[in-house]
Design brief:
Radius of gyration: 18 Å
Order of helices and strands: EHEEHEEHEEHEHHH
Strand order of the largest sheet: 6-7-1-8
Shape: globular
Number of domains: 2
Number of strands: 8
Number of helices: 7
Oligomer: single chain
């Protein structure tokens, strides 16, 4: 397996300073993190409680930058970044999914672009004194993608199209590239289909 190929990994990252996980766990609330947008200072979380707890939501509102009810059992939380999220924000990876979370660790599914590399990302965690275990590592075969698909996906990623809070719309990116929105939508859809099929085959 090439070190420099784009890949999807599942990492178990040790950390005990996540305010969201700590507050909810101390309140005895069962929850899962449905989405996450990491940043160097603050990280946005979309959290689903098994059963909505007003007291825990109030504590989060007091102790975080902002907490908003987003659905029956959903909370949108903007909280200070923990050590894991601060480390991730300095890399070029994309958080695809939060697999599991506890007060002492988090298991994340990440996309790592080929020009960055898994080893480089692991070095960031090591430099910050964070223990990480690689649970799964799947290399994408970019020969499955056309040069144009690879180019469009890379640009869309760099423009923030795949961020939890999208920084650029498909229309805006298409305009910069001088192509129509339907054309760009089709290129991304076909590329993502190939990548998903590749992952599911592993």
């Amino acid at each position: 397996m090439s070190e420099h190929g784009s890949r999807e990994v599942i990492l178990k990252i040790e950390r005990s300073d996540c305010s969201v996980a700590n507050i909810l766990s101390e309140a005895g609330v069962k929850f899962r993190v449905k989405g996450q947008n990491v940043g160097p200072q603050f990280t946005k979380h979309l959290v689903e409680m098994e059963k909505f707890d007003d007291s825990a939501a109030w504590k989060l509102k007091i102790k975080t930058k902002g907490t908003t009810r987003a659905g029956k059992n959903l909370l949108y939380i903007d909280s200070p970044s923990c050590s894991a999220c601060r480390s991730l924000s300095s890399t070029q990876c994309i958080v695809l999914n939060v697999e599991e979370s506890s007060p002492t660790w988090v298991k994340l599914r990440l996309f790592i672009p080929g020009n960055y590399g898994l080893r480089r990302m692991m070095d960031v965690f090591e430099a910050n004194g964070i223990d990480v275990n690689v649970i799964k590592d799947v290399e994408y075969n970019f020969e499955d993608l056309t040069e144009r698909q690879n180019e469009i996906l890379t640009i869309a990623y760099n423009e923030g199209y795949f961020d939890l809070e999208r920084k650029a719309s498909m229309t805006e990116i298409a305009k910069k590239l001088g192509i129509s929105t339907p054309t760009m939508e089709e290129i991304i859809r076909r590329a993502m289909k190939k990548l998903v099929e590749r992952y599911l085959r592993e």
